[in-house]
Specification:
Blueprint lengths: L5 H10 L9 H8 L4 H13 L6 H9 L6 E5 L5 H6 L7 E6 L2 H11 L6 E5 L13 E7 L8 H11 E12 L5 H13 L20 H5 L6 E12 L2 H10 L11 H27 L2 E12 L1
Parallel strand pairs: 1-2, 1-4, 2-3, 4-5
Antiparallel strand pairs: 5-7, 6-7
Helix pairs in contact: 1-8, 3-10, 8-11, 10-11
Length: 300
Amino acid sequence: MDFRTPDLDQLAEQVIPQTHFELSAADARDKFFTTGWMLEEKQLVHNRYRTNPRSMLDHMLENLALSGAEELLDLGCGNGFILEHLRPHLAAGHIVGFDIAPGVLEAARERIEGTVTPCEWVEGSADDLSRFADDSFDRVMANYMMHYVPDIDRCLAETRRVLRPGGRFMLTTDRPDSMVEMYEVHFTALKQMGAPERLFKATPKARISLENGHEQLAPHFAGVELRTWQDQLQFASPEPFLRFYHAHNYCCAASDAAADELGQTFFAELRERVRAQVQEVIDTRGYFAVTKFTGSFICR
């Protein structure tokens, strides 16, 4: 399915800033993923309101090309949502879930506990895989997490080291203009409030996106292939969209170093201004859309 239109391209040029937030691994561990609620909310809302009948999980399964007996390493496994769906395709295999945040690691452990596939849960930073021997895994995947890694180049080198000959590495991320409609209402609300200029930044996924990922991966892998995927979430009421928006750290405003100084009143007003814009679009069009431009690099 192709949701890309000239109007969305033009909107992205107007809305998406050139500079982007940088969220650290410490932010992930100590601020955003102390529990799995943010991931759970995004996953639930996305699956309920998506319009592409082919899910992102279908896309990942095709990319991984599992036979059922592989050794798989999931870097930044989060709450185990993706692993839960992949696991039946690895019934005779072995899974290692790896994450820097113990809170989501525990959520992943609980999600997959008792399944027949052997699973291990390892806490650590993805740019240090020294606990794993060379050629340890048939598959390695890193989904929507590489922008948190302190040293991306080192992480990719380590991934190549632990990947067996003939194996494949799947890195999933977004285009910088993914979900542009959400950023439009977000930045409009911030402008209405006279918010600090430092809050007008793009998603931290711009560190390694579908636009610049190939140049970062190519030095480490002989073959790098990009497979894109699109979806459009459509909301007939503001509430589910606002849950989705909230789980994205208010499009990163809440990740700002001075977010605590802005106060809860600031974020309450921000939500209400976003809500009003979304309701206006729904009243006019019948639904509010969030278009996702994402994809995976398949590295061999």
